[in-house]
Design goal:
The complex is a heterodimer of chains A (about 375) and B (about 270).
Chain A lengths: L8 H6 L9 E5 L6 H14 L4 E5 L4 H9 L9 E4 L13 E3 H4 L2 E3 L14 E3 L2 H19 L5 E5 L1 H8 L5 H15 L2 E6 L9 H5 L2 E10 L2 E11 L9 E6 L2 E4 L18 H27 L5 H15 L3 H25 L20
Parallel strand pairs in A: 1-8, 1-9, 2-3, 2-7, 4-6, 7-8
Antiparallel strand pairs in A: 3-5, 9-10, 10-11, 11-12
Helix pairs in contact in A: 5-7, 9-10, 9-11, 10-11
Chain B lengths: L10 H6 L9 E6 L5 H14 L4 E5 L4 H9 L9 E4 L12 E3 L7 E2 L15 E3 L2 H14 L4 E5 L1 H7 L6 H14 L3 E7 L9 H4 L2 E10 L2 E11 L9 E6 L2 E4 L17
Parallel strand pairs in B: 1-8, 1-9, 2-3, 2-7, 4-6, 7-8
Antiparallel strand pairs in B: 3-5, 9-10, 10-11, 11-12
Classes of the chains: A alpha/beta (about 375), B alpha/beta (about 270).
Amino acid sequence: MDRVSTGVAGVDAMLHGGLIPRRPYVVSGPTGSGKTIFAMHFLATGLAKGEPCLMVTLDEPPNEVKANVAAFGWNLDRLKILDATPDIKAHKRQRSVIDVGTTLEVRDMEDVGEIRQSSQIRALEVSVHGVQKMLKQEFFQRLERTKERYTRIVVDSLTALKMFSMQGEDSRIMIQSFLRFLSELEATCVIVSERLHPGVLETEFFLARGEIRLHKWLEGNVIRRAASIEKFRGSSFDDRIRPMKISDVGITVDKEGSVTFLGKRSTQVGEQFLEQRVVEEVSAVIDRVYRSLEEAHKLRVNVADVENVLSRAMLHLHRRNYQKALKAALHAQNLAAQRMDEYRKGHGLPPPPPPPPPPPPMGGKP
Amino acid sequence: MIDGKVRTGVRGLDKMLHGGLVPHRPYIVSGPPGSGKTVLSMQFLLEGVEGGERCLFVALEEPPNEIKINVRSFRWNSDDIEMLDANSDIRRFEPTPVIEISTESEPARMRELDDRIRKTPDFESHEVTVHSLQQLLKNLFIKRRYDRVVIDSMTALRYFCMREFEETITTQSFMRFLAESKVTSLLTVELPEEGEVPPEAFLARGEVRLHKLRDETGIKRFVSVEKYKGSSHDEFVYPFEIGASGIVVHSGENGPAPDASETPPA
């Protein structure tokens, strides 16, 4: 299967070759984690290969985007850019609100100069509909003019589009429709989105065919960065978090490096729920082993090996190594049962009564 | 089949379910994005087609052409699975006719699927509502008997197809419809990474939950049976992997993983 390079070699390696073409993907992460830079890598690589690329900017005006990536030395002159940053809201009663789709034009990056001035009489408002119409127009004009299709599209950011332009609309359906629209253009799309609330299931994250997540956290007073693939439909991928740097060549990801979280974990890897349950489960098993150990001590059965395994289980649990902890705990449980059986056989005792049904290890159902 | 139960197509999971699923009931497969819900439900249908059953996949999240490409890497023989494209078109903003998904739509077999995405027609837009989908399925079920049905996903159905409906009641009624149609169905539900479990989970007869836990060594995947009415089941959380042939659950005899017999120190 052919793949599309993201422009970051390390991420391509994590994706086992790159993105699957003609599908929408999400790049997520907290503010300042490098999402826009990542998206620009994706576009710059496309341009270098002579592919037509389009960027829809909603967060920053194009002149700022241009200035921000100037340091990386990429040639973005041929990048088409659609400025969909909303105008200053006029607080007087508006005579006419003009939709972005009807007035704005797609420009080449090289023609981008100063910030666009809000019109004095008509404020420009951005709506999903408008952006969509604009994109469609540009897409088909390009196809007619040059017989070329846009192969790479970046939307920076969907968070802004949601916040500014979906008031009063059902945002889930709007996003579904927008992603459907992008899919039907058959371009590979990178959608920048901030994950605002980990507890809320946001539409773009489950509809996108993949998610590249950028992490940023503080260790002491040093900012550390990392990248991970959270989801990638139709392909295997490297599921580890890999260290990432932003330098004068842009983003680099060490595809072999590993990340250790020494400081406060701010990576939002959403695991509290499962963690709590696994902890409950392991603790339940450990409790049961303890009870049988007490019994064994009373009968003076030698259970030194059981204690040994159990202490390892607790060590693993302490180190948050749940899988090993669970394994060791279960092993201790089996071993304890075995020792007791041996003891009973050795003393000609009847086999133990059937054990009472184990308490539900989940600690209560939701 | 054991005790007349329906196999899920994942052996380790069947073991956790003490043989499989009680037939003719709806079940939930839940998990965060990227946890393997679609893969699991494809394996469920694959198990059915291999046994000569009639199987239907209702796609609400992804275009069918992409699903077809995605499962290629597993080298399954999924040709006979029938696929119903229930993705809504791009919404219209102009007052053009909005057509509810036609109750005459027919599913297509996987082998017949186009490699490219279906395009929204210029002058009309098909919109899928829970009502129209239910009507469509009802007609299909009258025409022929389906043994296994997958709805991927209920979350998409709730998010995008219930604009004018009360969500919980509508979801319940949709599940009731599936139960009355006497099909064994898997409904996928997206879970947020943290926080509350969506209401679908309470309404089904059983829930298989997929967990995704990330640590320094990568993503660990676990599966648990959260509830299962009408049958005993395993209470443990077991690790699983998505390998070259699909999902493999390690619910071995000795513990949660195949190498659970860790040798104790002398």
